[in-house]
Amino acid sequence: MMLARHEDHPLRLFMVTLVVAGLTYGQWLTSFVLNIDGEVPDNFYQTIALGRWFHAVLRFGLLPEPFLPYFTNLTSLFVLSAAACLAALTLSLRGYRAVFFSVLFVTFPNLAYQLEFLNQADTFAVGYGLAILSAYLFLCGISAPRRVSQYGYLVLAVVLLALALGIYQTLVLVPAVLVAGRLLLQTDEELIGVSNLRLAVPFCVYTILAVLLYTAGTAISQGLIGVDGQSYFSGYVEGRSFGQYVIGVGSAFGSSLVGRSAFGFITYILATVAAVFLIAKGWKRAVGERVQKALLVVAVLLLPFAFVLLSGTKLPPRIYVAANLSFAILLTAATSVLWSRKAVFVLLMCLCIFHCNAITRLFVSDKRVRDADIQMASQIATIIRVKYPTIDLASIPVYFHGAHTNLAEEKLPGSDIFGSSFFAWDNGNDVRIKNFNRYYGIADYRPVGPEQIKAVEFILPTLPTWPDANSIALSNGVVVVKLGAEYGWLPFSIR
Q1: What are the domain boundaries of the chain?
Q2: Is the pLDDT of residue 1 over 70?
Q3: Which GO terms describe its molecular function (predicted)?
Q4: For residue range 331-348, what is the model confidence (pLDDT) as tens digits?
Q5: Buried b vs exposed e over 204-219: b needs ≥16 C-beta within 10 Å?
Q6: What distances in angstroms separate CA 378 from CA 83, 121, 372, 375, 483, one per listed residue?
Q7: Average pLDDT for residues 75-79, to the nearest whole number?
Q8: Which of 49, 97, 402, 449 has the fewest C-beta atoms under 10 angstroms from its C-beta?
Q9: Is the four-CA dihedral 214, 220, 224, 226 of positive or negative sign?
């Protein structure tokens, strides 16, 4: 059978994985859509503030800004496909099992929520690869016969994981899932309970050292550049009672396990079913072995959603970076002992088709809304020029007030940032809207300050909202475009 012929041929495995990834993400690969946050060509200071210092380093050298449509996309898929093959190697998978795992790895839709951010898609892929390589080196270090080799592997593993965290912090969970998966997929002959238990302590030390090294890198980079640190999770952590916290965590984990945490995640319920099967299958083993296997299964299943424990509520799907890894591991483990190769191939084909459909629908929704955004921005620019032909927009600022949602019906349920309009994000963001106009060459509007906004406050209640042409007015030397009734996000206070 075709799948079996790839045994011991890593290059063939990589090519199969890359081709499937290209087909799955064909819409994204060939049809450029500007993502939210992609309108700014240089995010250096923001990434340093967020602690993503190695992302900034890559942007200065190997992968410079701004992103390049198609090339950035292709680079991301290339690196993720290589990461999938390295993960299969780490898990000691061969033949059709390696193909099954690698293809599920690159097609599960959680990656789409990261690749949507084209301004960091390639560096995220590099970070994912570094995290997997780090786990591989950790396992090599643990099993190395000589102490010098052990230390060399482990030091390199710590450094690589710290670099991965310097790209995207939630990648810290990837080695944990991968190592747990490696122990889960061991054969009975390989299974030695004491060695697995002994692995926990060095793994914790390895992870802690990597986090400390990453933290040091964050402090040094922010100090050298002179920017204050920002916490990504601060917007999701809310003060609540212990009872509310428990309910929130339970609800978040529950929705994740049945595939309802985001659009396209519905197949994760198969991972939950596979986990139940694997636990039940090991019930006749010795008590210690049974408990160990059950803990490994639960760890692989739940670890991708561990940051829910910090927030106490459901998080955006882009946080669940290890969900594809867990999904692929659990289904590989379950099908390896239950199904024939032909049945596995049929299941793989069905899952690929379903995931391709979900991912394509996500990116198509984005394109339709972005086309509407471009049309709306062009209409606004035309009305300003026709209505006020004598004004010089190089000296007169424009203020976008409030928000307007384009094609709200295109927004898929639970699709996070997909299908979001630039004119509605942040409840309306004057700075973002202007950067969007500038990116597409529609107009280069001057910024406004707090005093200029205060000078036009009196006219805002009298204006209709877009798409009424009279929503655009010139007052006190400021062109006002009223998109909505409420104030949107501004980089300063006007109160």
Answers
A1: 2-229+323-338, 380-482
A2: no
A3: transferase activity
A4: 999 998 877 889 999 999
A5: eebbebbbebbeebbe
A6: 42, 28, 10, 5, 14
A7: 98
A8: 449
A9: positive
DSSP string, 321-370: TTHHHHHHHHHHHHHHHH--HHHHHHHHHHHHHHHHHHHHHHHHHHHHHH
Taking alpha carbons only, the member of 425, 398, 420 closest to residue 479 is: 398
Cis amide leading into 41 (omega within 30): no
Number of Cβ atoms within 10 Å of the Cβ of 7: 15
Of 484, 437, 447, the C-alpha closest to 34 is 437
Whole-angstrom distance, CA of residue 357 vs CA of residue 343: 21
Residue found under tokens 């973002």? 432
Strands 398-401 and 472-475: unpaired
Cβ neighbours of residue 259 closer than 8 Å, sequence gap 6 or more: 265, 266, 267, 268, 269
- DSSP code of 449? -
In DSSP terms, which residues pair with 473 in a beta bridge?
A: 480
Structure token digits, residue 153? 């592997």
Neighbours of 157 (CB within 10 A): 25
Mean pLDDT of all residues in 254-274:
97
Task: Burial-class residue 379 by CB neighbours within 10 Å (0-12, 13-18, 19+).
Answer: middle
Q: Which of 113, 110, 32 is nearest to 416 (CA)?
A: 113
Tokens coding 197: 């238990």
Query: What amino acid is encoded at 129 in this protein?
Result: G
3-state secondary structure of 64: coil
Residue 376 has pLDDT above 70, yes or no: yes
Task: With beta carbons less than 8 A apart as the criterion, state whether 142 and 150 touch.
Answer: yes
CA angle 433/439/441 to nearest 5° reads 105
Is the distance from CB of 5 to CB of 94 less than 8 angstroms? no
Residues in the chain: 495
* Residues 252, 205, 291: CA angle, nearest 5 degrees: 55
Q: Which two tokens stand for residue 351?
A: 């899952």
Distance in angstroms between the alpha carbons of the first and the last residue of the chain: 70
Q: How confident is the model at residue 61 (pLDDT cuts 50, 70, 90)?
A: confident
